[in-house]
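note to self: dont lose this again. the chain is below, predicted strucutre after it. 430 aa total, dont forget to put it in the shared folder this time
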Amino acid sequence: MGYSLSRLTLESDHFDPGNAAVHGVGNGQTPNKPLHNLEHEVAQLTKLRSAPNVRLTQIGPRRRDLPVSTVRMLAGREGNYSGRGGRFSSADRCHVLSRYLPVNGPWFVDRRSSRAYVSQFSADGSLFIAGFQVYARMSPIVHMVDVGSSEVESRANITEIHEGLDFSSGDDGGYSFGIFSIKFSTDGHELVAGSSDDSIYVYDLEANKLSLRIPAHSSDVNTVCFSDESGHLIYSGSDDTLCKVWDRRCFNTTRKPAGVLTGHLEGIAFIDSKGDGRYFISNGKDQTIKLWDIRKMSSSPARTPGLRSSEWDYRWMDYPPQAKDMKHPSDQSVATYRGHSVLRTLIRCYFSPAYSTGQKYIYTGSHNCCVYIYDLVTGAQVATLKYHKAPVRDCSWHPYYPMLVSSSWDGTVAKWEFPGSGEAPASLYY
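---
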């Protein structure tokens, strides 16, 4: 599979969204179960990162079942009720900003004649990159493109600005495989990739060579990522239904994963790390997102034969209705989220931004042409963004601003915001 890159400035005109709509948990979907009445650690951490200072909650009368109003918090900040010199803490900020979901719109960003497969904001939010299908061929070579130059916008497909990294280097058999997933390390010095030969690869960009190959799973490795800034732990997900944790510090000695997490009934489509070295989420072809705590992992997978249907293929078949309510008897996940659909392609899911929401939500594309936003703790489906005419494979929430961009197989890239003005903030234009 190949992609063409488009560098977008999000300076788009407002367009009529047609059938665009936003729906919450009241749309007929069964609510997901909450996390043990807020007793679980991840619920407490989320509360700490997105709850206002207790002194700000005591300003005047209010209903305890409602969040503290923004006006009340601003008044408390000006009066220095929290003792922070008239400043909000990061939790205060998240409490305010997380209430303003990017659900208004959409506004047109880009449209191509081919399917949009991937789309992401840069870490600082100054760039948005979208990848479109341009040809179908599996390859062990990953191309890197310099997007730092203003000239790249019109030259993104010219081969001389591509740098090819060969992940098959050192393979004595000369076997050709394909790369399904790739992620940068936080420091930008390494790449980790998942492949069609059931393996994980780590590429050292500074040395310009392959540094590690891990025979990781018994089927395609669809998704990989580093767990945190240290780069020591790697998470992987495969069509063998398992999520695995790999500790590079001891792999050369043990040649085994640090642990295995069982719970999905079908293959893993995507993994996103919370960035704390403990929690991550996975999107599964069993039509669920699962939240994991790696401290619950086992040394080997639970043996539960007969749960998977060998006759079902997500690429062209609907998910069997009788399987929708099935649960793995050895499920080690912390929580499960349902409502979206994972069919035809490897749909991606993410934690919402730490800066503006305290990672209070998770969001995902869906085969049914929508973007879903779930409350991490309660499991409630807080928003469903409807506009596209084909599967939404990827979507990206701006790291600082209440803006979400969705990309679909209909070739359209659309922008959703909270304000609804269609005007991108000045901070986007550097």
